[in-house]
Amino acid sequence: MNKMPPQHAAKDQVLPASLAGQLAGWSLKAQQYPVFSRSWFSCRVRSFLWPMAIFTVIVLIIAGVI
To answer: How far is 24 from 26, CA to CA, in rounded Å?
Structure first.
């Protein structure tokens, strides 16, 4: 049974560009990390918060609360 070399064991290391892909979007930085790693999750949360904050402000303005 082959064991993986130690350099492949770290979960929060940035993936090589050839594996990460070059897709544009809010979560471009998150694509550089392995899925479900702590760094990936924090990038996804940050990329989701800004659009939700803007949407919430627009809804509150339309509702007349602000």
So the answer is: 7
